[in-house]
User: What shape does this take?
Amino acid sequence: MKKHLAMVSLLTITGLYGLLAAIVILISYLTEGTALPGIYISIVILIIQFLISPWVTDLTMKWFYDAKFSYEVPEYLDSFINQICEKYNMKHPKIGFIDDGAPNAFTYGRFRNDARIIITRGVTDLLSEEEVISVVGHELGHVVHRDMLVMTAVQVVPLVLYGIFEICMDAALDDDKSSSSSSSDSNSGNAKLGFAAIGAIAYVLYIICQLVILWLSRTREYYADEFSCKETKNPSSLASALVTIGYGLATTGKTETENKHSVTTPNPLGIADGKTSKELAICCVGGDTEAVRSDIQNAMKWDMWNTWAKVYEILSTHPLIAKRILAISDYCPEYGQERYITFDLEKPKGVVGNFARDLLIDSIPSFAFLAAAVLALVFSANNPEFLPLYFIIPWVLLLVKFLYKHPLKGMDERHSVRELLGVVDVSGITPVPCEVKGTIIGRGNPGCVFNEDFVIKDSTGIMMLDYNQPIGVLNKIFALFKSPDYFDKTVTVNGWYRRAPVPYVEIKTFEVDGKVKKVWTYGFGKFGIISMIILHILLFIVFYV
Ligand SMILES: [Zn+2]
Assistant: This one.
């Protein structure tokens, strides 16, 4: 696996630049060089963005995340960082600390010598010292591998492709004022067709490039994981840290008394893609190793079996947690450790079928609206009184979808985080109505003062809570002025557990200090759709009668 990851990255980057060179040569030939200045300008802008980005991110971190760069790094961690810096001949990265109980770690900067690594209080609260070292080891892997530079450099390719798409579309849709004077109509028509075709190709390549870059990003994550394992010689601790940060499942490390808080969030070069949790005790703690092992396998089922996981992964900067901890487990024997985890469960039938069901439920209302619009266009000239009738069925179907996505039956049944993580038939469309009870330990996007989501912790793990009012600005006001009131409070939440691919509970109501708070999105949504159905029926009656 070792040289493999570096080699695969190199080949991908070479391929992307080869493609870029080919398309730039082609386009400059076709436009006789007139498109080139635009391409150069966009590349220069990207370079400037890259050069100033660390300062912009520094300010964002200080202003909106209250990150402290004066953080005194604990001795055990500092000596590890120093050891890596010495080995790779680079400066000690600036370490920023965000005082939020949800766990997250990420890195940014430009080069090896101006890297910043941010960790949240959740990391040190929830993880053992060994796990913290492994997580920071992963971030140092990004620095040593120059991933900030690599990922920026590849962005040039889709940027230029998109520029070419725009140039070609302009040329294809151009009103012909300049060219028609010299060339015949059919010639300029052909040229336009040619530009339209190149524009379409550029756009398709642009989409493919984005997917390739996401794939490259996931490769760099595996690569940083490998670095951490190699430098710490402790793959198991990285794996268990990921179970906690990536899934939210309590595993190893700290003893119950040491544990206080936990969670995470998406970040291009972060440790994990979404929020997760932890706090159990697996490998290091004697006794219940088997039970924890089966908890982890349960949490992995969704990643391994649900088709949605594969779809989300293609669109993610990070690989699925299950795949990462399996890849990390492969390194264990090399360092004299027992494999951290294996996944040998038998896949039950029917899981894949649920993906088709979800897609169908999700898309049928849209198709019905489309069909209604076509009917309206075709027939409404002669029979305008039927116009409202066409749209009643799409609205009814939308109501069916809405009710399917927000079932109320079972919402009073209490579930632990561990139980929910074991559910396989769950997605953004199909939820599990549930009640969860625990302590709010931080924000869904740890430290971000504009983030209205929470992370809750029960005795089995941590889980993101999606707080979403129908009017966006209300969320921001809540985040700024109300959220902190709930930190460290015990809450009972009723809502819908979903996984997309990060597990979370969409809040319907939550109870704190004996008071029930409500998120109005469900009520507004249902009221809105039903109103539209009634409105269309009334319109039909009025028109027809
Ligand atoms: Zn990473």
